[in-house]
Each structure stands twice: as structure tokens, then as C-alpha cells.
Amino acid sequence: MSISLLLIGAILLLYRQQQINRFKHINSKLQKSDERLHQALKGSDSDLWEWHDSNQLISLDNRGGVLGAEPTFTLAIAELPLHPADMDRFNKTWLEFYGCQTDVLDIEYRYLHPQDRTWHWLRINGRAVEVDSQAGKVIHAAGMYTDITKKRALESEVNLLAQAFENTSEGMLILNVNKDIKISNAAANLILASHKADLAGKPFIELVAESTEPFDMDDVFDKERFWTGECEFYCIDGSRCPVWMNVSTMINDSAESLYYVVVFSDITERKHSEQHLKRLANNDTLTGLANRSMFSRRLGQVIEAAKQHDETLALLFLDLDRFKHVNDSYGHGMGDALLVEAASRLQGCLSDEHLLCRFGGDEFVILLRDAKDIDTINHIAKQLLNQIEMPFKLYGREFFISTSIGISIWSGDDQTPETLIKNADLAMYHAKEEGRGNFQYYSAERNAEALYHLRLEADLHKAIAANEFEIYYQPQVNVDNNRLAGVEALIRWHHPSDGLVRPDVFIGIAESCGLIVDIDRWVLTQACIDGARWYKEYQQDFLVSVNVSTMHFRQPDFIDFINATLHRTGMPAKCLSIEITEGVLMREIDIATQHLLALKQLGVDVAIDDFGTGYSSLAYLRTFKVNTLKIDRSFLIHIDQNQADQAIVSSIIELARNLSLEVIAEGIETPEQLAQVVKRGCHIIQGYYFAKPMPKAELEQHMKQYL
Ligand SMILES: Nc1nc2c(ncn2[C@@H]2O[C@@H]3COP(=O)(O)O[C@H]4[C@@H](O)[C@H](n5cnc6c(=O)[nH]c(N)nc65)O[C@@H]4COP(=O)(O)O[C@H]3[C@H]2O)c(=O)[nH]1
């Protein structure tokens, strides 16, 4: 019995020992599992919680240290140190869970950390373990709480970046490794007139229309990995948009491309203002034509091209005649309108290959390409003249203007663009001299002459002060008694380097630059000084004739000057003769009439020089009181043989006689010429036959013999 009891006891002991061992084994497993769980919870910043309705307390198993160092603690829900701003949301969620309105509890809120006393983000999630379904409430719940402060911070950073991506004013596209669009931001959709859905999945290359720099997709994305430059995108609506684009590649650690980022901005405005500036720099703002600087550039290029292709070019320089009058009389608005209309008419005469430019003011320049054929140039020039001569109807008024055109030709020579323009300009001046409204070609000879005249003009300004003028006197002889009737004062210029310059060369220049008035007055003064002295010496009514130019005669103080000179020099008025040409009497008749009357009142003689060459009507002889007609030399040169000249000279002498005028034959060189005029009744002769113009000293010798 005792053995059996002992055996049973031993078996029980063994069994118990086995149970203890099994329990220990299970316990150790549980402990390990619990440890692993806590390690896992700790690794994820989480710990466990449990809540019982019976005591309304929440137990926080804080072994992971989420809420500080204290391992486990228990507190009522209301004691949780919640952020005031999260309080209501927390309570509402908890009550819904407690009231079984939701199966799970999942809430994020801020919690005052007991250790660092800062607000941490905590996420609580869990489930009901036991529910009183009759009362509709949770009796026992458990779950996990996690510190999500870092995750929250990361999320807000990501949100920030996402917002920045979405809201930046630059368009942004993120492409996947196949270079298809993965994401686009709002600006990209705005620029490309698209919606996100339009772009998603679209191959990026389909967007690119054009770029100013070469853009090889594969090269740029996978080799260079960075590209920046100007390019044009196709918008979804089919239009094109210029953009400034920046492409970069995102790579992984193995340097493989992961994504591509395309950042771009719409440069339409910039392009417009660039174009506007370009237009301002290259085009005339009024007419829209090429301006001077653009023309000069193009001319240089065209000449270079012409050299290669053996091309001939013609450059036409146009200046509108009488434009200044329109501008001055009707204002700049009218002038501008006229220029615009003129530009359009000129352009209408030219095909696209030719270049028209507004050179400035009322000047236009045209470059004709491939101008081998002179007839073609002439034809175009005539068309241009005709177009401008047609009436301009502007703001209810009608204007008539013309244009003068100078043409220079380039045919493989070494003329620079500047010379080509300058020569056409010179030729244009020649066209003006030829009476405006015509075209002239540039000629080197004419240019040399023009340059010579320019030099003389500069020298003329200094000539009076430098005492370079001298008066020669040419005798006028009365053939009845072979005595001296008078002398004509004729100016001579001793140019310091060119020697004696003839008056018919420099008088014209002096007239064109206005110096003639000073020159005439110098001659008049000298002639009066001499004449006064001769009168005193010889006491004879002996005429000293002085040439007076049109400009001088028209001066308002002309009579005052004559009067003052007579007084100043003591020259008797009756000894002075003023020689004017018929042209003087034809324009500004009122002034001519007044001045002639005043001369008559002064007692000064007036002679019409070069008579018969100027004006066709002789009616003016009725109006103007003159004393003498000087027969022009051109009628006398061949009078010996030419019957027409004989008839004309007879008529002039007859006319003078009938009007009681004196008549002088000028330019008599031979006895035959002399005989022809004398037999027709002209007795006063001026010509080489008797004497050439001579210096004063020589004349004074002559006077002693013939006066
Ligand atoms: N071949 C030839 N020529 C003869 C003969 N007889 C006279 N002459 C020239 O004929 C010109 C006459 O002067 P003009 O008709 O008033 O023509 C003048 C006059 O229009 C102008 N001139 C000269 N001196 C003055 C001046 O002081 N003031 C102005 N405004 N003009 C002047 O220059 C013109 C040319 O003057 P000149 O060269 O001195 O030329 C002078 C004279 O030398 C002749 O028998 N044969």
C-alpha cells in the first residue's frame, strides 16, 4: 500500500514537476513574446493601453517610454493632459467609441509630454474588448498609443513641399523614367491651357514644339542631366507658348535616372517686349519701315552677298521736295500723315527683294537688288516719282509734292556701304539743282566739281577779310567820238592757292550760300570810292556800272545802303549805274518796283544786263523805269553771219530807241561785230575789241588817253 502510495505520490510529484516545467516553459515563452512585443512597440514609438468601465481608468503600459520614464501609470480619461485645441475633438471621438457608434478608436491629438514639457502628437487606436450591448456601451477596451510627433512634422514638411509645388508661379512637371508626365502643377496647367488629367501620362516630347538651342531628349535627360534654355511648347488647345525651361534629372544611389523635373515659365510677355524693342531698334516708329541702322546693317550684308553672286545693286536716295513747307505750315501731324502715306506709296512700287528704309526726316533710301538692267532702275525711279507726284489727300486737304532721287550703282567695286549712300545723296542734291522732281545718277566728275565748289565756298567766307578781291574795270566806249562813256566794275578773286578764280565760277557759289550780298556791297563801295575820285579829277559825267545780284537787290535795306554809300564816298548818284538781270524784275514785283523807283529818285542809272536772254515778255519795260539795255553777248558772237542774231539785235536797238533807253553792246571782239551793231544804231560798246577788263591802275592810264 505504502509502495503504491509512494508510487502514486512519486507519479504525482513527477506530473506536478512536469506541469511546473511546462508552466515555466510557457511562462518563459510568454515573457519572451511579451518582451518582443514591447521591443516592437518601443521600436515604433508605441505602447499599450487598457480601459475599464468599472473604474473609468485608463492604464498606460508605458514600458516603451512613449510618455516618459514612468513604466506604468493609471489615470482617468479627463486627466489626460490634452492640448486645449484638441480637447473637444478628443472627447467627441471617445464618446462615440464608448457609445459603440464606431468599432474602432483612432484619434490623433497633442499631449503634454511629462518629461520635456512640450506638446507631442499622440495617436491612440484600439478596439472594444468587451461590450455591454444592452446598455450600448463599451465595458473594456484596449489598444496602442504611438508618438507620431516626427511623422506629423514630416507630413507637414511634405505638405509644405506639395503646396509649394502646386502654388509656385513656374510650371512644373515631374516625368517618370519613360519621360511621360507623372505630375503637373497648377501653373503648368495654366500655361499649357490644360487640366491635370490632360497631361498625366502624356509623353513629354509631344509637348516640345521648338527650341532655340538643340534639344536632344535622351542626351539632355540621361547624359547631361541638366538643360536650360528657351523653347516652345504645344499647348493643349493647339496654340504655342514660348517658355524658359529648366530640366534636371533625379537619380538613385546607383546613378540611375528615377524622375525628371521640368520647370518652365511662360515668356510670352518677355518675347513681346523683346520683339517690341527689336522693332524700335530696327524700324522707324512712324512708318514701320526699316530705320537707318537696320538699313546700314542690311546694306553691308547685301554687298557681301552681291560680291559672292556677282550681283549689281542700285541705291536710291530720295528726298521729298517741299515737305518742309507742309510741316511748317500745317503742323507735324500733317507732316507725319504725309510721310506715312508717302512711305506706303513708295513701298507699293517695290517688290519684296528690295529694301526701303526711312533714313530720317523726309529722306528715304531704297536698295534695289540684282539691278543689272539700267532700264529697270529708270523704270522704278520713274514710278517712284509718279507715285509721289500724285496729290496727297490728308485730313480734307490736298497737297502736291515731288521727290528728288539720287542713284548710285554698286557693281563689284570696292565702294563701302557709306560711300554708296553718300554718292546717292550727292546725286540727289544734283537732282534738286536740276529743278527737283527728277532722278540723277551719281557721277565722279560732277562730284569732284561739287567738292571743288564746297572748298571754294569755305574759302569765300575768308576772302573779303583776307583782302583777296580786286576790282577790274572794263571800258565802255562811245564810238561816235571814240571816248570813254563809262566802265563796268568786275570783281576778281586772287585765291591764295588756285590763283585767279573767274567770277562766273564763284559768284554762283556766293549766291547759293548768301555771301553775295557782302561781296556786292564790297564791290559797290570800292567802285563808288574810285568813281568819286575820278569825278573829282575829271569833272565828267562818266558812268561806273556795278553788278547787283538778285539777292542783294531784294534786301530790305538795299536802297539805304546805296544811299549811305553815295554819301560816304561822295560819289554823285548820276555817275552810278546798277546792272541787274531781267530775273530780278520778275519775282517779288512790289519790291522791285519800290527799289527801282527809289533808285530813280536818287538819280542812279539802272541797266538791264544780258538783255534778251531772260524773260520772254517785254511788258515789264512798261512798268519798270530803267535807263539802259545791255545786249547780251550771245546775240553778238555770230552777228556777222547769223541773220536771226542780226534781226534780234536790230529789234533790241529799235525797242531801246522807241522807249528812249540807252543801249550798250557787250562782248564786241571784232571790227565786223562792231560794224553790225553800229550800223543798227548802237553807239556804246563794251568788249575786247576796245579793251578787256583791267586793274584800276591800268584803267587810270587808259582814262588819261580816252576820257
Ligand atoms: N569773251 C568775251 N567776254 C567779254 C567781252 N567783253 C566783256 N566780256 C566779259 O563779259 C562779262 C560781262 O559781265 P556780266 O555780263 O555782268 O557778267 C558778269 C557778272 O554777271 C558777274 N560779276 C562780275 N563781277 C560781279 C560783281 O561784282 N557782282 C556780281 N553780282 N556779279 C558780278 O560775273 C560775270 C562774268 O564776269 P567776267 O568774267 O568779268 O566777264 C565779264 C567780261 O569780262 C568780250 O569781248 N569777249
From TrEMBL:
Residues 453-707 form the EAL domain. Residues 311-444 form the GGDEF domain. PROSITE patterns: EAL (PS50883), GGDEF (PS50887), PAC (PS50113). Pfam families: EAL, GGDEF, PAS_9. InterPro entries: Biofilm_reg_signaling, EAL_dom, EAL_sf, GGDEF_dom, Nucleotide_cyclase, PAC, PAS, PAS-assoc_C. Transmembrane segments: none annotated. NCBIfam families: GGDEF, sensory_box. This is EAL domain-containing protein. It comes from Shewanella phaeophyticola.
